[in-house]
Design a protein that fits this description.
With 558 residues, the chain is of the alpha+beta class. 38% of the residues lie in helices and 25% in strands. The protein is built from 11 helices and 25 strands. It has helices at 23-57, 64-78, 215-219, 246-255, 278-283, 302-315, 385-422, 438-461, 468-490, 500-510, 527-557, and strands at 6-16, 61-62, 83-97, 99-102, 107-110, 114-129, 132-137, 143-148, 152-164, 190-193, 198-200, 210-213, 221-222, 227-232, 264-267, 286-289, 293-296, 335-342, 347-355, 361-365, 367-368, 374-375, 377-380, 424-425, 492-493. The strands form 6 sheets. Strands 1, 6, 9, 10, 14, 15, 16, 17 and 18 form a 9-stranded mixed beta sheet that branches. Helix 8 runs antiparallel to helix 9 (468-490).
């Protein structure tokens, strides 16, 4: 298996762009303007449901001793098996036994909770280069260099072949025949949980019972990291070229100790079943090592070669040989697969207790709360029940915080558009006569951000006076309103005609549309009138220049 990539230079094409030249950029801009607040609303609602669900179960969490005492009462209430008790069993600092396997490849690992199959594809990528530049004068008198998609442009295409975790459609390439990507995907990436994970304990308190872990509980693991898997002779870690190599010494200095193994090594003899697996028999996957990879080369048939010759002649790439073609690299369509495992030594579990029999056969499964949220998770290490709930709330809060911070650039872009719509210059200027300070722009951005964030929090978390979320949100809305009032009184006025067309010109410029599609009016004239006047002035100047030149030539001839 070859891991090196390949770079090829494609052809340069000159063509004229149509009216939809910046359509994709406009779509992305609209998706950003609409999607940013919607994503924050969704995350805020998810966190609200999660906090409410944790609040409902906090009085129903019991330990192993409490579960033993209440087992008989729960069985009598249920009247049969399996018995969902509605109680949440918390087991802290336990060990487990369990196997996880991928039947497609015949790979099996013990002492593991989950197995991740990571599939990578050797694919071509197209890298177009098409930009024009011009000098523009801003409304405040400053000059900027603007880049935009040229209406009549020379587009240079380059191609890069490398390993990617996704497939690339080559039919939309400029030269698809010379850079064809077979889209075969027999075994995509997949997460496989253990089906027989059972809790154990060194103290012997779990010897008289069997507590299994449900698949839904294993899907929600927090605080654990994936470990790459490699197969070697005897499952031993390969020795480096020198035990005293400078890399190992440098690593020990950085970590203040001996280097920690980052890869789980298994015996090469355990891969015997892979020779009878569907992956090997149907797609010729073989273990090649090089970091624990299974490799499958692409198959080239006569029909594919014939079509490549035919379409290569049409696009002019049939005899286009480059240095990259002779370099050793993977072939487009090759597939390689590696594995990562989740197998911590000690875990803590919290989930609904399900009694399956009267002889000590229990299970910990996920529970669907009244908020339609599934509760039940596994943490690495010895963690209390409150610590597990707090860790999950912290993880949800971190996602919400990230979405709130991403709303700040959204607020800045929206302020610019609203300023163009209302006739306010909401960009810090460097010259006269227009000058909006950076403080005013900052107030506009943070004001809009605080107003939207506060309204979302009030609508989701409620308006109860004792709710801390409501109180902080009200303060945030009041501060945001004051900031926006300051902006209204101190922002400079634009010299162009405000309105929807002015906002469109700003949005189209951000999308790098050609200048002809975003002419902006000045003073009180309309954009269409301004465009017509400009064209007429240019035409009259050209005619006058022609008349003067002809008169001068006639005088010289006399």
């Amino acid at each position: 298996m070859r891991s090196a990539g390949t770079f090829r230079s494609g052809r340069t094409v000159i063509y004229e762009r149509n009216a939809l030249s910046g359509f994709v950029g406009i779509v992305f801009a609209l998706v950003f303007l609409i999607g940013a607040p919607l994503s924050l609303i969704w995350l805020e609602k998810s966190q609200r449901k999660l906090v409410g669900a944790y609040h409902d179960i906090e009085n129903r969490i019991i330990d192993l001793r409490g579960a033993r005492d209440a087992a008989q009462r729960d069985i009598q209430v249920c009247g049969g098996f399996p018995c969902k008790t509605g109680r949440f069993l918390h087991i802290q600092g336990a060990k487990f036994q369990g196997n996880v396997s991928d039947p497609d490849f015949g790979v099996s690992l013990d002492k593991s909770l989950k197995l991740a199959r990571r599939t990578e594809y050797c694919q071509w990528r197209e890298l177009p280069m098409r930009l024009c530049q011009r000098e523009v004068v801003n409304s405040d008198g400053t000059k900027d260099i603007e880049e935009y998609d040229c209406p009549l442009s020379a587009v240079s295409y380059s191609y890069l072949k490398s390993w990617l975790p996704y497939r690339v459609n080559s039919f939309i390439f400029n030269q698809p025949a010379a850079h064809h990507n077979p889209l075969r995907d027999p075994y995509p990436s997949k997460i496989i949980p253990s089906l027989d994970a059972v809790l154990t304990s060194d103290s012997g308190e779990l010897d008289d019972m069997t507590i299994s872990l449900g698949v839904d509980v294993l899907q929600n693991t927090v605080g654990t990291s994936w470990t790459p898997v490699d197969w070697t002779i005897g499952g031993r870690e390969p020795k480096p070229l020198s035990d005293f190599s400078w890399l190992r010494i440098l690593r020990s200095w950085i970590t203040f100790g001996p280097p920690v193994a980052e890869t789980r090594f298994e015996s090469l003899a355990s891969l015997g079943p892979t020779l009878d697996s569907p992956a090997h028999l149907e797609n010729n996957f073989v273990f090649v090592g090089q970091g624990g990879y299974f490799f499958s080369p692409t198959k080239k048939d006569l029909m594919q070669a014939t079509l490549r010759v035919f379409y290569g002649a049409l696009e002019g790439s049939l005899f286009d040989f480059q240095l990259g073609d002779f370099m050793p690299s993977c072939s487009a369509g090759d597939i390689r697969v590696r594995y990562e495992v989740l197998g911590p030594h000690i875990i803590s579990v919290l989930g609904e207790l399900v009694i399956k029999s009267a002889v000590g056969e229990w299970a910990i499964e996920s529970y669907t709360s009244s908020y339609k949220t599934k509760l039940g998770f596994v943490h690495e290490g010895s963690i209390s029940a409150k610590g597990m709930v707090a860790a999950n709330e912290h993880e949800a809060s971190r996602r919400v915080l990230l979405s709130r911070l991403l709303l700040i650039p959204w607020a800045y872009c929206t302020c610019r558009l609203l300023g163009a719509l209302l006739g306010l210059e909401l960009r810090a200027g460097k010259g006269e006569p227009l000058k909006t300070t950076r403080g005013v722009v900052l107030c506009a951005t943070l004001g809009l951000w605080g107003l939207i964030l506060g309204m979302i929090r009030i609508s989701i978390w409620g308006t109860e006076s004792g709710n801390s979320y409501f109180q902080s949100s009200v303060v945030l809305v009041l501060l945001a309103t004051a900031a926006l009032g300051h902006v209204k009184n101190n922002a400079a006025k634009v010299r162009t005609t405000p309105g929807i067309f002015s906002a469109w010109c700003m949005l189209a410029r951000a999308a790098r549309m050609p200048p002809a599609w975003r002419l902006q009016a000045a003073g009180g004239s309309t954009p269409q009138h301004e465009s017509m006047e400009s064209m007429q002035a240019v035409e009259e100047s050209a005619q006058d220049f022609v008349r003067r030149s002809s008169r001068l030539a006639a005088k010289k001839a006399r």
